[in-house]
Amino acid sequence: MKPALCVAVDLGATSGRVIVGRWHERRLETTEVHRFPNQFRVLGERAYWDLPYLWEEVRNGLRQARQRCPRLASVGVDTWAVDHVLVDARGRLVYPTHSYRDRRTEALSARLNRRGIGRIYGLTGIPSYPYNTSLQLQETLAACPTVATAARRCLFLPDYFNFLLCGSMENELSVCSHSQLIDVHGRDWSAAALAHFGIPRRWFRKPARSPARLGPVRGVDGLGGLATILVPGHDTACAYLAMPAAADGSDLYLSSGTWSLLGFESRAPLVGAGAQAARVSNERMGDGGYRPLLSCLGLWLLEQTLPHFPQRPNSPAAWEQLVAAAAGQPEPPVLLDVTDPALFNPANMRVAIDAQLRRRRGKAPRSLAGYVRLICASLGRGHADGLRALERLSGRAFRRILMVGGGSRNRLLCQATADAARLPVVSLALEGAAVGNLGSQLIALGAVEDLATFRRDLAASLSRTVYEPQT
């Protein structure tokens, strides 16, 4: 059989990647052809995404991929969740695209938490976070009521980039499920939730399951013959697909990046008063299954602390030196609460961390290495707390933690997680979201039979490091 060649567009909140996958003789080889930074832009008091910049970088990456691999068969796009565009019938933007880090929804979130969250959680299985799409759209309609008639469609970011590629305006299920607007017991929008937030039902199509073919690329010159594949649009959903999990369900998944996302796969949602209190988010897989998960602030804490130090790592070797120096620091007597909203998007992360430590009767670190040790230890404890909550609520006993993402390359974070959870942590050497994206494309193309086959074949050649608990 000839090799199958696909390209994944994997957009994260801090960086984007265009990665080519070559599937041959049941092995996947990946090549990163383009990587670029991403960040929201602040204009006045509001935070926005620079979509023209992102689209230009995506096109650059796809052209480079085609130059390297003329026989590319398909492309798929995944991004972070909740953020979206409002467009007219022709796909023209009718409202600016805010970043989920914007504070415009804080008052609405507080009001929902005071009254109504129990009903909304029962409808959607999604807890109240200020960045939820439900609240973003509610605030948009309150600030600019004419948007209700100007906009014809609401597309989440992966949906929008699919539209730019091939002209299709589908809403993909996995990324829709994070919106707090999908029926937790079905696969369509919750009419009651839409009515609660005052959001027009006509803005959305029934969520499409993935993977599926959308149509040929027509929005990028030089990419004729390339098929656009609807992959799970949420990068976490793609990362979960790449996990070579045990068939008995005893593995817990940890996607460690800007956010730490800890969860498992299930054929039923994890709901009820206990799940609501723990803030379990019942997100969906592309095929309609469930991904109950808990989230906490992840390496965003470190990313936002680095700018406040003059000497920052700028190479893999420098990062390794910093992690080694951090490992030599004393164990922090007081850890951070990595679910604290005050750390979500502070003006100065170092100041915000120091303030929390003072409230908890702790002392601020004196060096960057000290902050790295503190953050890794705190995230490890946060991961362990999430593990125990999910075990208690689901009745499952997890035997190991499978870890992907940028944090999986941080040995200090991996060991801190293993020690706090008292379970082995298996660090998988793969670009989780991009690999899951590629796997979905291969299934849609018929090059791989199904997800179980992809995971089995991938696991056979995957490099991994196991961190056993030491304390």
In short:
With 471 residues, this protein is of the alpha+beta class. The protein has helices at 51-68, 106-114, 117-124, 133-143, 147-150, 157-166, 173-176, 191-197, 235-241, 273-278, 300-305, 316-327, 349-359, 368-394, 411-421, 432-445, 451-460, and strands spanning 4-11, 15-24, 27-37, 41-43, 46-48, 74-78, 84-87, 153-156, 212-216, 227-230, 251-256, 259-263, 281-284, 290-297, 400-404, 425-428, 464-467. It folds into two domains: 4-233, 2-Layer Sandwich (Nucleotidyltransferase, domain 5), CATH 3.30.420.40; 243-429, Nucleotidyltransferase, domain 5.
Description:
This protein is an alpha+beta fold and 471 residues long. It folds into two domains: 4-233, ATPase, nucleotide binding domain (Nucleotidyltransferase, domain 5); 243-429, 2-Layer Sandwich (Nucleotidyltransferase, domain 5). The chain has 17 helices and 17 strands. The strands form four sheets. The chain has a seven-stranded mixed β-sheet, sandwiched between helices. The chain has a six-stranded mixed β-sheet with strand order 3-2-1-6-10-9. A two-stranded antiparallel ribbon has the order 4-5. The radius of gyration is 21 Å and the shape is globular.
